[in-house]
Amino acid sequence: MPWCPVCKNEYREGIEFCAECKAALVESLEEEVYQPFIFGEQEKMIRLQEFLNYGNAGIETKLTQDEEEHIYRLSVRDCDRKNAVKAAQVFLAGEASAQVEETTQESAQDNEEKQPQSYHYYQNSAARAEDNRSSAYTLLVVGGMGFAAVLLVFFNVIPFYRNAGINKYLVCGIMGAMFILFIVFGVLSMRNSKVLFVKAKTENSLLAEMTRWCEENLNAEALDAELFQGEEVAEEQKYFIRAERMKELINDKFMNLDEAFVEHFVDEYYQELFENT
């Protein structure tokens, strides 16, 4: 007599599906029929089997190997097939998402390793001092001339043409405050330029000392022998490897240097050490 593998009801001969569960009937509850469900590699099929067995209670599976095609076959009972399909879709979607994320991380890591570190823009103190002084002169001249013009308008030396809704005192107050700010910023820029000129002298002394040390301790052939040891490396890649090693040696000798300052110095001295030779 046929039996329903889900609700365990017995049916008379000739009936193929359960009226309540709609599951295919089997001849014996002890020998339930397993139908091939999905094929794949061994590791993936084992993970899917564990997911179906433990992650979704009630879905029993059998894993067999097809020796001719060298693949593994996962089979489920007919009564579990619909639930197994839904569960497998969730599993495969998760596997695909994890694979994409892993590939993205590896690609990002490779790019970080291949690309050089970000370059820090550097402007020496002498150039910054000159820029501040030029800005100071401009601000002081414009501010002084503008404020003088406001005073002449205020004391009626320069006639003020009245228009509807425009008040002379309001205009002079606003314009006077603006030109006073110009003068204040000009004074601050002039003070900054003096500080930067003093800093530039110290910076020039440090550059001279660093250059002298590099001339005595850095050698192009010795650096290449240490870094590459006969390996074939692209010329563009050599630049970044050499520059990084030069920065390490300089930072070990001269403490607390600004990173942008070191990068600028290495770029300048690299040409003398490798390209000019």
Largest sheet: 3 strands, antiparallel
Mean pLDDT: 80
Q: Strands of the largest sheet, in order across it?
A: 1-3-2
The secondary structure category is mainly alpha
Number of helices: 7
* Number of E-state strands: 3
Distance between the termini: 96 Å
Gyration radius, to the nearest Å?
41 Å
H/E order of the elements? EHEEHHHHHH
Output the keywords.
elongated, mainly alpha, 277 residues, 3-stranded antiparallel β-sheet, 7 helices
Kindly describe this structure.
By secondary structure, the chain is mainly alpha-helical. It has seven helices and three strands. The protein has helices at 42-55, 81-114, 125-154, 168-217, 220-227, 235-253, 259-275; strands spanning 34-40, 61-66, 71-77. It has a three-stranded antiparallel beta sheet. Strand 2 (61-66) and strand 3 form a beta hairpin. Helix 3 (125-154) packs antiparallel against helix 4. The longest helix has 50 residues, at 168-217. It is elongated and about 120 Å long. The N and C termini lie far apart (96 Å). Mean pLDDT is 80; it is low at 114-118.
